[in-house]
Amino acid sequence: FAEVFTKFAFGDAEVYNETSNTYNDENYFDMALGLALGRKWINRKGFTLETLVGVGRNLFYDEDSDSSQRSSASARFNVSVGKRF
User: Cα–chain-centroid distance for residue 67?
Assistant: First the structure.
């Protein structure tokens, strides 16, 4: 299966200030839009196993002003085990 996903992230990142040669903590908020591919298996007793791998692009990332601690991409991995009723 395939799915489109959104992912929200916020936090603190250290940003280097070239004029004062110091590091400053800055708050950030970002939202990623991406695509994931997965597979689901169901056995005869109703137990399920699902795997998912996806990648998305951070929409508010700015390469010139953002720190090296942040990335322009966002990954998504998932493994789930369940039971159908």
Answer: 17
